[in-house]
Fold each of these.
Amino acid sequence: MDQFLAQPKDDIHYDDAIWQGENYGKQTTLRTSLVVDPSNGRLPPLTPEGQARAAERARRGGATGPSDSAQTRTLAERCISWGNVGPPMIPPTYYANMQILQASDHVVIRHELMHDVRLIRLDAAPRPGAAVQWMAGDARGRWEGDTFVVETANFTEETNFRGPPRTTRQDITTSTQLKVTERFTLVDQDTIRYEFTVNDPGTWTRPWSGEIPMRRIEGPIYEYACHEGNYGLANILRAARVQEANAR
């Protein structure tokens, strides 16, 4: 595999096949899924509640045209979120780098893609009430030996769990019962083993877990200035208006 994935240090490029090959092939896991539990590598079935919510979301999405307004386009196209910030942090198709910083009262995870920043509190302050919700939840971290454990709750019902939010009509969204537990373990000088468990009895019939190796790289986190060059969204809406005018 290495001969097909090798690239020179002075000509590194972002490529999903290379990312997967380096993270799985060289680690000798050869896994074809990020999911390690269930052992078949697939998400558990949706609960009746989860199925009903997905059907309602599809119904609401079908009631409007995909280009009726900016609000009917995806969060990624609107430069709001790519969905990779998590938790859990699912790698995007490119720009999968992140920077981890630790202060006395917070751990900060800065994602390169779509400029998202996670703030993980380290103090023992109580969580806010259930009515206070975030798309990425409320994260609290602690150390268990050499492993950094993060528990996140207080999610909304709009949290996306089908990777990058591109096709809104097929997304799986969670319930407010969602809880995510993440574990970061430094296994060698250049590798963190990232493990996560998702527990949402309002969406899936059982908890499920995944695992991703994170490799240390050299270099900065580059600015992802999505809004500066986001001509695509304006052109999509403009073209839709032209089509509507021609039809009339």
Amino acid sequence: MTDVLLINPSYSNIIYAHAKIKVGVPGNPLLNLAMLASPVIDAGYKAKILDLNLEDDPDTFLAETIKREQPSFAGITFTTPLSKEAVRIAKIIKDIKPDTILVCGGAHSTTFFEEMLETSEFDVVAVGESDYLMKSLLEEKDWSHLKGIAFKKNGEIIKRPKADYIEDLDTLPFPSWKLYNLERYDKPTLSSRFNPPGYLETSRGCPWGCVFCNKNIQGRKFRSKSPSRVVDEIEYMLDAGFKEINIIDDTFSTDIQRAKEICGEIIRRGLKFPWHPINGIRVDRVDKELFRLMKMSGCYKMSFGIESGNQKILDMIKKGIKLKQVRDAVKWAQELDFETFGYFMIGLPGETEETIKDTIKLAKELKLDIAKFNITIPLPGTEMFEEWNSKGFIKTRDWGKYNFYSPYQDLYTHPTLDYDAIDKNYRKAYLSFYFTPAYLLRRFRRSVKEGTLLRDIYLFFKTDWLN
């Protein structure tokens, strides 16, 4: 018998089926499930994690697990494009064990809690931060006074206020990584060099207001773990068996001094491990000293959320950065021999073919090691979605289609571009960036220097460049 079963839906064939750089798909064990499990275990209950991405036949494995474990609660975490899959999984569970209480969480559920409760088998929706929710649901018989949930009761949907943000992140228990079999997370990808890689959260809340970003879980107030707590957690992860650390903060260096102190503490303790800020680092929150300390402490890759090569577009999406800051940050990183990775978006609000050309031109000018181009998707809960929806540009609320790697034409009509222009420039971005003699030579030299040539050749041929 299991008190809480936490489930990660199989997403590779749903979200990344049409991705050009499929080897960029992350394969890490999820941090949020390990965090949700810790308070449950600390309170004396039994928790298990089910990562359906690891299974060849996820449905059969799920059904067998439900029959065997007979969970009292099952929690499913998912993003917008996985909402239909989560609903399907919920039905499988209820068909096998109807009295299992189903809980869902994440940005999509928080935005559409009523829809989730009205149209699915879910009994409870976690609204906002929910680190201790599963423990509270186990211990409290009357949920009507709990914060941070919406739930069904006698056919009525009851919505409670959001839970207060956790101000002191040092009070959070360490994630229960022991619930994962880390040996199963061992496949080469562009997102990591050494396997298994582990996700680390050092802060929450992003003060900036990019129109394409949903902040309804962690908000815009920056909250952070202390440097000593961060490095304690790193040691804990290395002892658990992780070979690389991927920092998943929205804004790791919002407090530049704190970021420097984290690096200094890693160096002081003599820890040797590879790491990088996988979600990207803001070009306006860096300096040369930070990069130097990051390099000394084992960081090997610098990812930047650049989005556009046109200043007008950057201003329109409220990115809050200048192109000079982009060029300076990339240059400083390259001077220290970081591998540089740039994230770009095509089809942003206000975009024209000329502004897309600026983006492609900048990506090539920066001489990045890797560039990742995505077609813009107005995700629910973002300012972009609300504006485009109010103007009639949004075509569907079929959430399974809200996927960065799937055909977008059924989702929206772009205000300033036609579909042919978006498709043509998306394809051009990849081909013109990667298929030049200068890039291929540059990449070859780095691969030889770092001893990753065979790995990089494998990853190259696993990429769908031409479709």
Amino acid sequence: MGARASLRLKQEVADTYRLALIGGFFYLAGWLVVAVYGRAFMHNTIVSWCLTILFLLLAVVRRLHRPPPENADDSALNKWLMLHWSIVLSTTTLFGLVFLWTILDRRMEAGHTAVLLSTMGLAVAIAHAFAMRLQLALVSVAVMYVPGLISLWLASNDSASALVMSIYLLYVGATLWRSHNEYQHRLDIDQKLRDQSDLFEQQGRTDALTELANRRFFTESLMRMSQEAKVSNRSLVLMVLDLDHFKNINDQHGHAAGDTCLSIFASELKTRFGNHGEQAARLGGEEFGVLLQGQTLEDAMRRAEAFREYWANEPILLGDISMPITVSIGVAAFNPELHRDGDGLYRAADSAVYQAKNSGRNRVCSHEPGTAKKLWGVGGT
């Protein structure tokens, strides 16, 4: 089952429990009214007390049958729904027997009005409250309503009541159909709102051109990871990458070509630095950043050098146009005492990439306390 279907299922479980929470006690109340006016406890004491206890038990069980935890899978949710519906069906079937008994037993004639009104009211309640599953709701209404209605037509001289009950059954069916459609429509609207919210959230943390994380989201990740590194002593490395002479591409080939170059560069960056614990982002213009958790400075430097070397030997092709690009990279490992927080780490990596630029570009530099040390790269591009 897909993610959307799972969300709808969870919503259905929550709605079913919420709407069924107190419903069982109304069946008990309806039965007691019928029993009192129809003098059921006088005519058949044992059956009357058994019905009272059963209605009470079903009402309590319905209330106590709580939904599964939030992390429950779809199988557990469906199992819960079927069990809860079995409780509802048991209750409506039991009231259907009350309806049938009241109509067939002449000694309970005084309770006819009460049982007719109770049955109609409970049927409408089902139509409004249990429209999530149309077929099960129809079965619930049918087992409660139809046997007694047939007996009312066959065994009673009150054809007017039978006619009114029949017309009302059509109304209940129409109401149930409408309520079901409205419920499904509400779920559709809720899903669209969730999708829109997810889209806004994604847009708020994603660069539209490259589909990498944007600077705001990257900054949040940098602050969070640096705090985690302080607590856990887990290594954290930051790489800042800057495309060399990128303005020349825009000037010579146009901004559309420049945007294509950025997209291709970003795609390769995401491929090479998209593992667990790694976060690549576009920081602005032609500047990019990569956060690496759990890696040493030396490992990060080797990966940075491999990435730099790839672009030094792999021009970007746009049709018949070949556009060579190079990248300068600054690398810094987080030191809580030296950098203190994410801002300090960023300043260190930015200092290293600045040193790479000043040393001739197309090279990788690492940061050391108080300076930036060139480790790899070829100069003069």
Amino acid sequence: MKRLVLALPALILAVLPDCGPGSSSETTSTPPPPKTVVNTAPVTVGFGALGPSGGYVNGIWVSVTVCAPGSTANCQTIPNVLVDTGSVGLRLLSSSLTLSLPSVTDSHGDVLQECVQFADFDYVWGPVAMAGVEITGTGEEALEVPGAAANSGIPIQIIAASPAYPAPSSCLAMPTSPGVESDLNTLSALGANGILGIGLFEQDCGSYCTSGSEPVYFYCPSGVCTGANVTVQQQLWNPAAAFGSTDTNGVLISLPSVPATGAASVNGSIIFGIGTQSDNQLGSAQIYEVDEYGNFPQVTFNGVTYASPQNGSFLDTGSDALFVSDAASLASKGIVECGRGFEGYYCPASTISFTATVYGANNVHNSVPFSVANAIALFNTGLAVFSNLAGDSGVGPSTDYMDFGLPFFLGRPVFVGIAGSTTTYPNGYWAF
């Protein structure tokens, strides 16, 4: 099984149309009628595009439709896109995309590239293009970045598009735990046709990349890549924050619970907006404001305090398990790490119950119970959805953190409040 941890560390150029077929916008004498907007998109939790033989457990999947900017006909629907609350922006494999989209370039015609490394040191690399984005079937559309020209599209990443320059070494951090850096630039490696990042922020890098202080965006004239300063409008945008509707302040992930033995698959929903419609009210959910890094300021677990940012902890549908502490620190509780090709997951002799305490920047805290089962026993069932799959996040207290992955969301509606959408919680928040 693939171990996937798609969480990002906290972190106007010319837009020239490609010359490929279908890149021109259609012209009509009568504008089309406005779409009916439904703020709920169906999602499925299961193996994903590669199925049980090559996919991974606890993937949450949605379909996304992309269009050439300004067009309602020059469009393509991409299935099996991974929903990720731990990152921001739409990223599509070039192998999944037949549509020609306009590239973002500088004044010399060099295309803007992006390198994104996730919390497990895997990375994706590819150019930035402009597209109109719809969450398929909802009518929720991101047709331009707020403040930009109407129907100019939002920036998205095309993973592994030609020309295939090597990813710059400056964007790849050395891992703090055993393992090697690897790319997720193919379907077999990623296990998905793309990633829909609908996390806590409007853009994926913000002010860190406007000054070039973070090695994320690059231009590569003659194949030599150097870091680029990019405005927030040029960066990948959270599609949910760029919708033309009023549902732009966050999302609600709603998934059913599963038995302790797992399930073959489950169906749920992404509900866009928070408090904007009758189906996305906070109700009794407790709000936990995140800190400036997009983390819980503090989590305590097994007598250890994990403090942000060094040991930041977070919620992340893009992680397939609960990645908590390390096997050595939990050995006295009966935790052992799996072997036989399943390293990184936990394989206790029997299921063990734990409790962590999460703290919000708004001075609230509560206990979160969870269980850890034997990962190999779970995988051997042939099922795809587990609430008690867990593994290590580091190799010791100095490198450990708490990543509450997809299992956390099963049977627990979770709100993701986008930073800047409310003055009460300016950093953004989670609520559950």
